[in-house]
Amino acid sequence: MQIIRDFQFVDDAHRGASAAIGNFDGLHRGHQYVIDIARAEADRLNAPLGVMTFEPHPRQYFAPDAPDFRLMNAEARANRLEWLGVDKLYELTFNDTLSALSPEDFAQRVILDGLGLKHVVVGRDFRFGAKRAGNVETLEALGAKLGFGVTAAPLMDVDGLEISSTAIREALSEGRVQDAATMLGHWHRIDGTVIRGDQRGRDLGYPTVNMSIAGLHQPRFGVYAVKVDVLTGPHKGAYKGAASVGVRPTFGENLPNIETFLFDFAGDLYGAHLSVALVAYLRPEEKFDSLDALITQMDADCAEARSILENL
User: Fold this and answer.
1) CATH-assigned architecture of domain 187-309
2) CATH level 2 (architecture), domain 2-155
3) Torsion angle of alpha carbons 170, 175, 177, 179, nearest 10°?
4) Which of 105, 160, 213, 231 falls between 20 and 30 A from 266, CA-CA?
5) Would you kindly state where each structural domain of the chain is located, as residue ranges?
6) In Å, how far are 51, 92, 134, 146, 150 from 142, measured between CA atoms?
7) pTM score, two decimals?
8) Cross-strand pairs, 121
9) How far is CA 311 from each of CA 225, 240, 307, rounded to the nearest angstrom?
């Protein structure tokens, strides 16, 4: 998959796609449906399959001090889109210039002149242009005028529950990772680079890999059964394990992170890129009075996680 970050000065090889447009935070089943429609149009037009999205997320751009809300960072989104078979990721830099474009200028300068898109697919609630002035009807009219196709995909629901990033955040905040997975169409994942921690886990007999969750919506703090993909380095592959999300209250005040213990693994993962899937919520985070009590609980957590993951 090729990543294009500027709608200007685009090489001809990156133009002419059928593209889904949106923020695609979480890449839930509704997002995947939009991408599948774009895929069908790409096949019909003999064109590449593209996705147009924005970085930083427009919500971050306009409210940088608001609480963290993202379900995916840019790396995780790109990894998932590549897995979904996207050919061109137009990850456009969201800045003063792009945010100030009117709907008409966005259609002309970005969709047509910049990227030369043949067809675009959006959700029925899509808004675009400065002050969110454009909607689906605006885009359809501009597409008819400028010569690119437009499809508006209906919103999806599962068992009467409308799929949305907001509903997924609520499920994760409550530790309902299976409900989140139902809406996502895949396990919720936290992707990132392994960073150096305090190395306490090694002393406890449970060496963990540490990853930051800064900028991401925080799932309910606690212990999870997880599936782990090591994406880079000599230990690249799939593993199972148990992870703790939270602030590690037994050891004082700490920034929130995710610490993961990989079952039956030995090796150095510092600097590697990991994708950690939250499969089951086991228990809330708690403060222990002694290291022995903590180790006893970790033994029980890992045994429960192994049992849950045995057939997955």
Assistant:
1) Beta Barrel (2.40)
2) 3-Layer(aba) Sandwich (3.40)
3) -50
4) 213
5) 2-155, 187-309
6) 19, 20, 10, 6, 9
7) 0.87
8) 20, 151
9) 13, 11, 8
CA distances from 44 to 23, 37, 48, 88, 249 (A): 25, 11, 10, 17, 56
| Residues designated catalytic | 259
Neighbours of 114 (CB within 10 A): 19
Burial 121-146 (b: 16+ CB within 10 A, else e): bbbeebebbeeeebbbebbbebbeee
